[in-house]
């Protein structure tokens, strides 16, 4: 079997050319699995795009959607059943193949994939047709990266069908009038229609994903999605009993509540903010993340009263919890500790022997032990086979690493919590009182959190963090896990400070007095992340800005403090040595501002 997989991965064309029908599609599925797992050379991507993608699309076009008409009959012959299987497998394979590759998406687009798949999608809304959730995935993946792909989906009139698939009980979208300005009374879903069946959870989730990708285009968001009243079924799904649908719906809300979305007013009227605040308290990390992400987008640009209402609904204490606490890491530690205590209380010699045997079986990937292989077998193992084995071992380790997963979940929530604060103290919708509202919002944040506590919170994100130790089967000298400041967290912290420094002189004076915070920020000038370095340059510029001649002396004093902390020297290093032009130019502007504090 290992040799077969290796040979398939080495020469995919041989299998594809010698097979036909379902055998050919299954071979394409195997090759897709090898490719998406990273076991194929990167150079093979072009081969996959020019061989696998056309074959899958050609199979779909050759069979055609007419084979679905047989579902109306009481008897279905074997050929029709086989064709249905080929259609489903081809769509699923195409989805997995192109979902994360811009090149393969382009190959599918160039092969007229939108037209072919669109025909199947529309056919699912013919009465008594066989519905398949796999139709959605290629569309959702294809429109992920290029605006041209999104426009193609709109041109093929697919959006009404996608929106209708948000409803558990669908009907024909062609027979439905969708008001541009939906009213609250239209929130109820339609009744069951036997002619169209019921959309399963997988279809609803995939439709949410496809609409979220389409909503990344402002023009589509403001026209096609608004015309099809996407906000009505999307909002309804936030209260769906299935957690996967709630997660998908909250992800869709991230793009529907932005300040450029016309359906934002309607969603505000039906209370979307309160539901999202409620979902940030979910035990599910994905739902908690999506809800907080949507709130971050919602709060950007709303008025002062709406911002305060949101913070009160969320509560200051819970906001601090989201930003500071390692919720998933703590939960994993508690589960691990509890299971160890339970095992220890029931352990006897037989259990110890069983665990010892289990250890050797599960401590590593299911691969042959090369140290025990004969010399002849070891010599026969090519470098490519060794590389494949290493890749499989890495994948197994990643799948089994709960610690890594919960760490990523916690960091993602913390990042969006910080971005929520950034937007909270950012510009408001009021053009005339924007500067005053900006300053008032910062003061409000100081009042509810406490000024010292607020800066301590930000400072903690720039320091090493010591996490709970997890007992490894093979113990090491390390007694704890150390988490270094993550670039995305540091960037979020710095941009909060950039907003504060863009406020009134009083807030700049408060910020320049945070010596420990600024000292630790100085260590981030060597960050490998470009966004962090650019943000630091913005911060230095804003800190030494002057609003009027009365602020001249204070501006000069702040510039002197930055020089004392050695930040001017670090900026000069960025200006001369940084590999990014944007960073060098930002550093140059900041140096001028520090050396000669004058308004531009």
Strand content: under 5%
Number of domains: 4
Class by alpha and beta content: mainly alpha
Rough outline: globular
**Low-pLDDT windows of residues:** 1-10, 68-73, 128-134, 140-144, 340-373, 471-477
Helix content: 55-70%
**Mean of residue pLDDT?**
79
Number-wise, the strands total 2
Spatial order of strands in the largest sheet: 1-2
Tally the helices.
34
Major pleated sheet: 2 strands, antiparallel
N- to C-terminal distance: 70 Å
Rg (CA only): 29 Å
List keywords for this structure.
600 residues; mainly alpha; 4 domains; two-stranded antiparallel sheet; 34 helices; 2 strands; 66% helix; globular
Give an overview in words.
By secondary structure, the protein is an all-alpha fold. It folds into 4 domains: 1-156; 157-177 and 186-270, no CATH class; 300-340 and 391-461; 485-600, Leucine-rich Repeat Variant (Alpha Horseshoe). It is built from 34 helices and 2 strands. It has a two-stranded antiparallel sheet with strand order 1-2. α25 runs parallel beside α28 (487-501) and α28 runs parallel beside α31. The radius of gyration is 29 Å and the shape is globular. Residues 1-10, 68-73, 128-134, 140-144, 340-373 and 471-477 have low confidence and may be disordered.
């Amino acid at each position: 079997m290992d040799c077969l997989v290796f040979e398939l991965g080495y020469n995919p064309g041989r299998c594809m050319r010698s097979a036909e029908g379902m055998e050919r599609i299954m071979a394409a599925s195997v090759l897709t699995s090898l490719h998406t797992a990273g076991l194929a050379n990167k150079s093979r991507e072009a081969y996959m795009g020019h061989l696998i993608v056309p074959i899958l699309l050609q199979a779909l076009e050759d069979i055609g959607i007419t084979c679905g008409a047989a579902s109306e009959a009481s008897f279905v012959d074997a050929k029709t059943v086989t064709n249905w299987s080929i259609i489903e497998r081809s769509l699923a394979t195409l989805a997995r193949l192109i979902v994360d590759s811009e090149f393969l998406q382009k190959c599918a687009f160039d092969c007229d994939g939108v037209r072919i798949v669109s025909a199947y999608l529309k056919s699912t809304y013919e009465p008594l047709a066989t519905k398949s959730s796999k139709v959605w995935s290629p569309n959702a993946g294809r429109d992920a990266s290029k605006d041209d792909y999104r426009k193609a989906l709109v041109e093929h009139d697919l959006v009404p069908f996608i929106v209708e698939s948000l409803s558990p009980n669908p009907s024909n979208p062609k027979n439905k009038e969708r008001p541009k300005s939906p009213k609250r009374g239209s929130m109820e879903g339609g009744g069951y229609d036997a002619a169209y069946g019921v959309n399963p959870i997988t279809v609803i989730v995939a439709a949410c994903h496809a609409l979220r990708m389409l909503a990344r285009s402002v023009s589509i968001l403001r026209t096609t999605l608004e015309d099809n009243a996407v906000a009505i079924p999307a909002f309804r799904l936030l209260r769906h009993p299935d957690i996967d649908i709630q997660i998908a719906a909250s992800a869709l809300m991230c793009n529907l509540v932005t300040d450029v979305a016309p359906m934002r007013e309607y969603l505000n009227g039906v209370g979307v903010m309160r539901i999202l605040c409620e979902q940030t308290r979910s035990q599910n990390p994905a739902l908690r993340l999506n809800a907080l992400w949507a709130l971050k987008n919602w709060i950007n640009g709303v008025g002062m009263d709406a911002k305060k209402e949101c913070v009160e609904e969320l509560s200051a204490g819970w906001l601090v919890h989201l930003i500071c606490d390692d919720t998933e890491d703590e939960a994993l530690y508690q589960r691990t500790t509890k299971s160890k205590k339970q095992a220890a209380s029931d352990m006897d010699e037989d259990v110890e022997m069983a665990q010892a045997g289990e250890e050797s079986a599960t401590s590593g990937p299911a691969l042959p032990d090369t140290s025990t292989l004969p010399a002849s077998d070891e010599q026969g193992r090519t470098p490519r086979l060794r590389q494949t084995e290493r890749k499989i071992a890495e994948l197994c380790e990643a799948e089994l690493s709960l610690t890594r997963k919960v760490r990523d979940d916690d960091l993602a929530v913390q990042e969006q919590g910080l971005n929520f604060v950034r937007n909270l103290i950012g510009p408001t919708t009021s053009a005339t009182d924007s500067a005053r509202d900006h300053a008032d919002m910062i003061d409000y944040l100081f009042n509810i959190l406490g000024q010292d506590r607020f800066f301590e919170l930000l400072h903690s994100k720039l320091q090493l963090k010591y996490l709970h130790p997890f007992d490894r089967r093979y113990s090491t000298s390390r007694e704890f896990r150390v988490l270094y400041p993550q670039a995305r967290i540091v960037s979020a912290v710095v941009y909060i400070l950039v907003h504060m420094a863009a406020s009134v002189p009083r807030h700049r004076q408060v910020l320049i007095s945070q010596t420990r915070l600024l000292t630790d920020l100085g260590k981030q000038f060597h960050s490998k992340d470009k966004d962090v370095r650019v943000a630091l340059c913005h911060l230095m510029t804003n800190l030494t800005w002057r609003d009027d001649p009365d602020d001249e002396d204070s501006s000069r004093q702040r510039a002197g403090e930055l020089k004392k902390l050695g930040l001017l020297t670090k900026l000069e290093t960025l200006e001369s040595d940084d590999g990014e032009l944007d960073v060098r130019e930002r550093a140059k502007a900041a140096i001028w501002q520090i050396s000669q504090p004058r308004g531009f």
